[in-house]
Amino acid sequence: MKNDVVLDVRNLKLHFRTRKGPVQAVDGVSFKLQRGRTLAVVGESGCGKTSLVKAILRLLPRNIETFSGEVYFNGEDVMKFSDERFRKEIRWTKMALVPQASMNSLNPVIRIEDQIAEPLFLHNSKLPRSEAMKRVAEVFQVVGLPLDFLPRYPFELSGGMRQRAAIAMALVTNPELVVLDEPSSALDLLTQANLMNVLKRIKHEMGTTFILITHDIGTASELADEIAVMYAGEMVERCSAEYFYTDARHPYSRKLMASVPTLREDKELQFIPGQPPSLIDPPTGCRFAQRCHQRFEKCGQHPPIIQLEHGQDVQCWLYAIEKGEVKHG
Amino acid sequence: MASAALEMQPTPAEKATPILAVEDLHTWFEVRRFGFFKAGDVRALDGVTFELYEGEALSIVGESGCGKSTLAKTILGLHRPTKGKIYFQGADLNELDDEQFRQYRAKVGYIQQDPYGALPPFMTVDRILKEPMIINGITDRKEQQRRIRQVLEEVKLAPIEDFLPKFPHMLSGGQQQRLVIARAMILEPKLLVADEPVSMLDASVRVEILQLLRKIQYDHNLAIIYITHDLSTVRYFSERIFSMYGAKIIEKAATQALLKNPLHPYTRALFEATSDPDVNNLKTFKEVPTGEPPSLMNPPSGCRFHPRCSKMIKGLCDREIPPEFQVTEDQSVACWLYRES
Fold this sequence. Notes:
Chain A contains ten helices and twelve strands. With 329 residues, chain A is an alpha/beta fold. Chain B has an eight-stranded mixed beta sheet with strand order 6-7-8-3-9-10-12-11. In chain B, strands 2-1-4-5 form a four-stranded antiparallel beta sheet.
């Protein structure tokens, strides 16, 4: 079973340097992801979802204060790789990213087929063009684009098609892990549903491992086997989708679920009063405590990650008390 | 919630005076080639008719490019209609002079989609709220103070004194949207047009803003046109829903009726495509029509949805434009499938 783990992240930290002090965008995140599974990372804007994947893929800006932790990819700690080795061996050959708003990041003066083939040439400059084009045509079909769009320019494609082209670009090197950062949020409802169908098919047929970053819990349920909830730079809950949607444990996850309007059932909607804390100077205890209706004196200290039944990990004191594991955090 | 929505249904007596009546409204935008030769028209709004009553919330759903924002802007007087009429409290907008038109605009509030983009970054909250009053001749200091206090209390931006000297960038997304609502309310309008008021906000704030808007509507007996692409928020908001596709309204229904049984194949597709948080979604594929919305410069003949529709009737749907069929008392649809009813 252990070999099945594609990605094992341990205590990952990414702090940015700013004039006001370090911003703790990702602060001690750990999780494991098995091959062929999809992890959806959900949370409100500014909770560190995108920073988390940037840290995993090492797409970092210059103002880094702290970048530490371990990232095991197929059992190897890729954090120890030099930047050059990481670029050659890991990024895009084994881990690919579909960045946010990628449909608008295609180069307007280069044909779609050449853009999709680019990752192939970058990693193997001796690759014959005919072979590359064969591979491009393959992924084009995988994402459900008609082949006669290959030699066109990005402006000739609709938004949904450009998004598919961006996904094709990530899949072209046949990576083991694909990270999708808000793949569908800029798209129309029907286009979004079509895209989710495509991703679902890729997942079933090719067994690709996905990390899906989204703020939309409804859409996440289309693809996710596991859900991770992020709040203020920390992963406060991680569990299988089955249990998350029926029985989320962290007070924040519960509130978040209660705030999502549903179409098919009539439920009383709730909202979360207050705002997330500043990541420059977050509270020392539980970061959600200020907005939590179940807070008690223990919440002034940093909560440990508690493992519950069904493999649910929750960072909350409530469950530490329940399990009788209260010790000094 | 369901019972509350039903109680708010206007009684027949109230129905006599619509606050807003739109009749066969067309808004076309001319497209020019080389800035000189006319290349055609984008028919952004192509024959829309409806009535809106006092205290009623109406939702308009549809995808981008279906004309829902054009409808909002035409009602607000930001676009001139090419053809058709808009009556506000019985008066034809085309026949108003400039002064009367200014008074009309003061009675209609506008809530924009992107709150940050809608607020001038160089003005303080105080100034932003005073601006509409200065334009509309409310110059009395005391009256200005009273109104500012009242609207800020209503949108729950408290304590008021802390907010007045702030600039928009100092507010969070939710607070900015409250300020936009406050600004729309400051002239005490009769009708609010909210164009995707919550689509830029986080889920946890979204509900708060919707509930706030609903409360303001009840308290002032306002009519609201709520424009959205998200069917799931509509349930919590309105009495009636219109579904738009290709610059036309294709289905009109009471909210509960539409959510129980959407009739038009396009409304059904929208319904089907909306994901509820449900773990069973993982195992099923969605049945959604492929293809793209039609070009509004050169729309398809007959029903505009027919090229994507799985239930298309050959020789009918692709030739004749479907009229509005009244299927039940509170649901009508422009689709040939219901021609027998």
